[in-house]
Design goal:
Two copies of one chain form a homodimer. By secondary structure, chain A is of the alpha/beta class. The mean pLDDT of chain A is 95.
């Protein structure tokens, strides 16, 4: 079957399941989630056997060590997936909530009520836990999902969805609620992007080139983030210990992820006090520093930074450093070069924190906290289906509530318009 | 200057103004709105003179009578525009509202706070009042707007925006907050669609072909509705008077608009009781009826309906009529043929109303009320920037709150991730 016909067939089945899910009660979906978590644990050996197939093929294909790590499923990762699903099951049902309700002067009752979106498609790369997280968040919010993972994880993803189908069946829900695409045909992604009327939302997760390709092709609405060029700004009034702790954590705790810091901004009023201390700690941690001329006067070991450095997401132990004259120059730098993902200020000054939070045009603003907290789990969402640096519908980490829409329910007593 | 360079220049100015607006207080934006309304009234003669230029050109171009009507500005329409702006000014400020706030177990404070989107572009056809409505809703919500109206209304639109610039100046706000595109170059629309990073949202309003062209071209997120194929379903338990009143109003009060009824569904259990009465009233009002075989048995005068009739938005005094066997068949018909805009049920049965509202997958569900109420003004939004049949971000009539996004503000005391 060609990719377009295949996509139409699976999406039509997903649509039917979405219509079924839209009429379920939250309790039934939560029971399904609990059963899914139990099935994942029960099928741990089977899932790990499928994962070994993927790992062997990946080893043959000489895939990078980082990708092998992301691909590997262990007992611990099964427990983590199941635990996240159980946490999602315990959350309040986002569906059916009344967002607003009021009477109009003519007596019409207007209600805005939260409903599932319908069919949500997630396109992602090699991490198999995305399969479990995305499926669970979609199920929680009453949506059917169509999941297209990377080809190197296909056996793992199918084994995870097979386990979750047992959970669906145990709660009397249709298998079409969770579909992992069982095809590595590259034509499937463009076909998904053009499936208007069948898919309501696409969330692409992965490298910038994957996401750009999806946006170029998409007729279906897309929510995405291209990259995380995150900043930490040490304000004139920043505490030294907090500055060191936050900068080290934001850069070094996990440098390969989107919420790691990529540029450090230091206020000129604090640079002499803070920059040499912070730079020493970063250098000790193996971070390569690339600085502006003023930061290199204070820390001569730094390499010079170029204009490109301000725009680069290194995803590595490299950091751009710039001395700025005051809060507004820091804000201007972030809004010019940043990616709207996550930006932090370290300060004791309440007015500086307020202005930074208001003026920096990013999904997450951290005040005296590491950029690494920008995450669905850390925000209490249980997991995340993706992170949005778009401004439409959802911004930042997307949880179950972000997979809902609403409808207007208007009740009259024979009302007609005059 | 070519269209792409022109669009980049005006959008860059709009972005700067958006950054300014994002830091304003609601009071200042409301003062600007009140001044805009006053300036529209004060410049009524000037605006109507500009409008006469457009009307003369339109008459030369042999434009349809309906379009001439939509294009015409009178004293009354100036008052209506100014009144809508004042109503918007009196609404609660949607910006700065805390949507959710909570402490995490580690003491991190998480807040989701409503903010403006940034730069909103509206692409529309010949109705000049859209200029005032869209500009006012964008200003209320702290957004800069870029407005591209139909070429036949360009003098009217520029005169309206000139008046509103006086209002902005009186409140100390930049003129770049409201930009009417002063070019009829057809290459401008594709350039707007591709202005990623400069425009945050495009709302196209108009015929289906305009909207499809925008969606095909767009790299910027789009919110839209293609059409309104709206239904009224007379349930087995429908009251006769309400049925007649609602059907007549939904079809005849203003047949050329998107919230007019296009298909009438009558339950087989009520068809004999209701359909002849309703059909007689519709025929008396000059409505051409096109019925399924069972409805033609009850009302032999009807023309036969074809499959195409179930999908057609007539925007005229024509109505498709179908007898259905029960609530679920009505729901299935609407979800198959409808456009997700507005669908109504007439019933005395609370369970039927509940199930219809839950299962019909449309932006607005009317219970014992005419579809014609599906409108930003009727919902109390003051005006609407558009109507969405999409499910992302906004659904149904879009008011000022729908032109906001949010940011996460996370406050710690030196928190780092373990």
């Amino acid at each position: 079957m060609d990719a377009i016909a295949y996509v139409r067939e699976i999406c039509a089945a997903a649509r039917d399941s979405a219509a079924h899910l839209a009429l379920t009660q939250g309790r039934q979906r939560d029971e399904a989630l609990i059963s899914c978590a139990a099935a994942l644990r029960a099928q741990s050996d089977h899932i790990q056997a499928a994962n070994r197939k993927d790992l062997l093929a990946a080893a043959d294909a000489n895939i990078s060590k980082a990708m092998m790590e992301r691909l590997t499923i262990t007992d611990k990762s099964i427990q983590a997936m199941a635990g996240a699903i159980e946490q999602i099951a315990r959350q309040v049902d986002p569906v059916g909530v009344t967002i607003a309700a009021y009477d109009r002067p003519n007596g019409l009752r207007i209600e805005k009520r939260r409903t599932p979106i319908g069919v949500v498609c997630v396109i992602y790369e090699s991490r198999p836990n995305v399969t479990a997280d995305a499926a669970a968040l979609c199920l929680k919010s009453g949506n059917a999902c169509v999941l297209r993972g990377g080809k190197e994880a296909i056996n793992s993803n199918l084994a995870i969805s097979a386990a979750m189908h047992e959970g669906l069946a145990a709660a009397g829900l249709p298998a079409g609620a969770i579909t992992v695409i069982d095809s590595t045909d590259r034509a499937v992604v463009p076909a998904l992007c053009k499936a208007q009327g069948l898919i309501d939302l696409i969330v692409p997760r992965g490298g910038e080139s994957l996401i750009r390709a999806v946006v170029e092709d998409a007729l279906v609405p897309v929510i995405k983030h291209y990259m995380g060029n995150c900043h930490v700004y040490l304000h004139a009034d920043a505490d030294e210990k907090r500055s060191v702790d936050i900068v080290l954590n934001a850069k070094c705790q996990r440098p390969g992820v989107c919420n790691a810091m990529e540029t450090l901004l230091v206020d000129s009023a604090a640079a002499q006090r803070l920059l040499p201390v912070v730079a020493k700690k970063l250098a000790d941690a193996g971070v390569e520093l690339r600085g502006c001329p003023r930061s290199r006067q204070l820390v001569p070991d730094m390499k010079p930074a170029t204009e490109d450095d301000w725009r680069t997401e290194y995803l590595d132990l490299i950091l751009a450093v710039r001395v700025v004259d005051g809060l507004d120059e820091a804000i201007a730098h972030i809004n010019k070069y940043g990616s709207g993902h996550t930006d932090a200020i370290v300060t004791r000054d309440i007015e500086a924190a307020r202005r930074f939070a208001a003026a920096v045009d990013s999904a997450s603003i951290m005040v005296n906290a590491s950029t690494r907290f920008s995450d669905g789990g850390e925000y209490g969402l249980g997991a995340e289906v993706g992170i949005s640096t778009d401004k439409l519908h959802a911004r930042g980490p997307m949880g179950a509530e972000d997979l809902t829409t609403y409808k207007w329910i208007v009740t009259g007593q024979g009302h007609v318009r005059g």
